[in-house]
Amino acid sequence: MLHKFSYASLARLVQVLFPLLLYPYLVSTVGLESFGEVLYWVSLSAFLANVAGLNIETYSAKKIKEAVTQKDLFEAIFAPVLLKIMAATLVLFMWFVLLYFNNLDDEGVLLIAFSVYPLLTVVLIPSHVVLGLGRFKELFFATVIEKTILLLLVFLFIKSNIDFYLIPLLYFISISTSVVYFWLMMIPKLLPGFNKFKYKKIELKSYFQVAPILFLGKITQLHTNGGKFILGSFVGVQYIVVYDVCEKIINIFKIPLSIVGQVAFSSIKKTRMAYAKLFSLLSVMSLFFVFVILDFGDYFTSYFLGSKNIKLAAPSLEVLSLIILFMPLLITFGTNYLVKYAKPTTYGKVLFLCNMISITTLFISYFTGNLNYQVFLYWAVFCEVILSIACVLITFKLMRN
Questions:
Q1: Which of 326, 301, 305 is nearest to 316 (CA)?
Q2: Which of 174, 229, 266, 296 is positioned for an S-S bond with 149, CB 3.0–4.6 A?
Q3: What are the backbone dihedrals phi and psi of residue 235, each rounded to the nearest 5 degrees, phi first?
Q4: Which residues neighbour 253 within 8 Å (Cβ) at sequence distance 6 or greater?
């Protein structure tokens, strides 16, 4: 477990450290507005990529762990990949239809066309394999390769604000390289089961039975998947970079919590004491992280965005830090209990219901003319809070039964 925890920690650490190097350079070189335009299109692409991912990663990881034979394992690995490729094909068609009907110059075409790069990670880097088989080592090295190439490309080609349209292309190249490396490392380990693999409709059917409700849960999770696109469309593009930076800082502190949850997923016993210990550990960690954010928030935001934007960024970070306080509830009782022991569709139904409540509140704010940047921040926190509370209530009900 320590070996897996180490590689998982290093992989996530690399993912968040490289933005620490890139973001200050990109913000100072291309400016808030131009970088915000890039993030606007990337956020829409990321939302569609998550749709193509069908939100079946945890269910698929569970199927991998339940596999008895090599044949079962092979099917559990590749059935979700096939489903995602099918969904991604539809997403790509829609994306390029959007591109075709927009009157764009060459720079605009490059910007929007290659903003589709999040689709590569969601579809072709199978997180269910990493989680189910514990292949954190392969993920770590793929991440290092991706970020190293990206860093070199950005410093080589992004020299002024007129180069901002190249940013998605550079991300696309670096991610494509990491995808190729990941599968080159994984295929030799999977080849022993290849000659035993036969396509079975029943196996794919089981994913179709679970996927719709998980899909609905994912597609309606707008605060994480489409938050920056909503912010740019209804509040202002200039706020996207500030929100994105604050979100990334929050995600840095989420990483240790998520890693503890991922490691516990495959090893925690189904006892109240085990879950109480997990929740206690995560709670102590989250409180410590919130205090760090409150004390050093000004320094974090000024490093990324410069001192001139600190008046907007620092309060934003303080509001979003409330999300970390509810992470222990979501990890302990959501992903580590409901997903493992409830019916396969239960977590998806909870997610969908909570998302519909949050979407309703967002629409009310917009149509009453009250939607602004500050309201959007509290709405993002509200979304996490209601999901965490719902997971707790349903978990306690299941435990009593």
A1: 301
A2: 174
A3: -115, -50
A4: 289, 292, 293, 324
> What is 15-32 written as a DSSP string?
HHHHHHHHHHHHHHHH-H
Q: In whole angstroms, give the CA distance from residue 395 to residue 401.
A: 10
Q: Which pair of structure tokens corresponds to residue 236?
A: 């202002």
Single-letter residue type at 219: I
pTM of this prediction?
0.76
- Is there a contact between 380 and 227 (Cβ–Cβ < 8 Å)? yes
> In the 8-state DSSP scheme, what is residue 330?
I
Give me the residue label for tokens 């066309």: 113
Q: How far apart are CA 342 and CA 281, in angstroms?
A: 23
Contacts made by residues 377-383, CB under 8 angstroms, sequence distance 24+ = 377/243, 377/316, 377/319, 377/320, 378/319, 379/223, 380/223, 380/227, 380/320, 380/323, 381/319, 381/320, 381/322, 381/323, 382/358, 383/221, 383/223, 383/224, 383/354, 383/355, 383/358
**In this structure, what token pair is assigned to residue 317?**
């970070």
pLDDT digits (tens, 9 = 90+) for 320-376: 999 999 999 988 888 777 777 777 678 778 888 898 999 999 999 999 989 999 999
Per-residue pLDDT band at 164 (split at 50, 70, 90): very high
Q: What is the DSSP letter of 334?
A: I
